[in-house]
Design goal:
- This protein has a single domain, classed as TIM Barrel.
- Helix 6 packs across helix 7.
- The protein has an eight-stranded parallel beta barrel with strand order 1-2-3-4-5-6-7-8, surrounded by four helices.
- It is α/β, with parallel strands linked by helices.
- The chain has nine helices and eight strands.
- The chain is globular and about 45 Å long.
- The chain is about 35% helix and about 15% strand.
Length: about 260
């Protein structure tokens, strides 16, 4: 069965909860993937009252988390503990993590193994970092790095289609062939946004705003999968653009 997820942050308690409940009741989406902003445990009671299934996403470099940096191990463990509290309270079946920055995927694997949680999925990243990141490259942009992390840490995999395209361009690979190779790792969840096909930088464009061949993606991926729509939200008050993206994606996936 195809499942479609809405990406929200744990700080979105005053704006998106009510419109999300309306869309969930209309069967526009099936679950929320909640990004856990550090030190927002006070919001957990509010989220626990939301009658929608959840997965969670651990904070990443935007909040100073770096699983590939040994000097940040204690800080990373603290943030993971907060993330786990959300996951436990919300009965989340997936905890998605980023590999960090700098490229030390073996250190990343070591830290994930220490977390010792079967719900963890490592997400692939672009190779080139966004401007706000204090490093040149992300950790976990290649199939080899993700495979090592999965095997060493005994964790699952979240395939981000846009990230795979960015990485393919950085490594001089065909983007769709690169996606197909990543799919051999049997991802439990797929992040999907539109993108310009030759870029090396993640864009999170709304569907139809980029150049992604969605029908080609559908032919590569088993449509009976779990997808999270990671497109930009133009409004702080409503989820109208997400609703359009969700209807677009479901239509593509359900075409014969």
């Amino acid at each position: 069965m195809t499942k479609i997820g809405l990406k929200l942050w744990s700080t979105n308690i005053d704006n998106y909860i009510k419109p999300a409940q309306v869309l969930y009741e209309k069967h526009i989406f099936d679950f929320i993937e909640l990004y856990i902003v550090p030190d927002t445990l006070d919001n957990l009671k509010i989220w626990s009252r939301v009658k929608i299934p959840f997965s969670v996403h651990m904070a990443h470099s935007a909040h100073n988390v770096d699983l590939s940096n040994s000097q940040k191990l204690e800080f990373n463990k603290k943030i993971y503990t907060q993330t786990k509290k959300y996951a436990d309270m919300l009965s989340a079946d997936m905890i998605i993590v980023h590999g960090g920055t700098g490229g030390d995927y073996k250190q990343c694997a070591s830290q994930i193994k220490k977390f010792n949680d079967k719900r963890i999925l490592i997400e692939n990243k672009p190779h080139i970092t966004l401007p706000f990141v204090n490093a040149n490259v992300y950790t976990g942009s290649t199939i080899g790095a993700i495979t090592y992390i999965m095997q060493y840490a005994d964790c699952g995999f979240c395939l981000d289609i846009g990230h795979a395209i960015c990485s393919a361009n950085s490594h001089c690979e065909d983007p769709y062939d690169y996606i197909e190779k990543f799919l051999e790792l049997s991802p439990s969840c797929i992040h999907l946004s539109d993108i310009h096909i030759n870029t090396e930088l993640d864009e999170h464009l709304n569907y139809g705003s980029g150049e992604l061949d969605f029908k080609k993606i559908k032919n590569l991926i088993n449509s009976k999968n779990t997808f999270v729509i990671e497109t930009n939200k133009k409004s702080k008050e409503n989820l109208d653009d997400f609703e359009q993206d969700a209807k677009f994606l479901r239509r593509i996936l359900e075409e014969g």
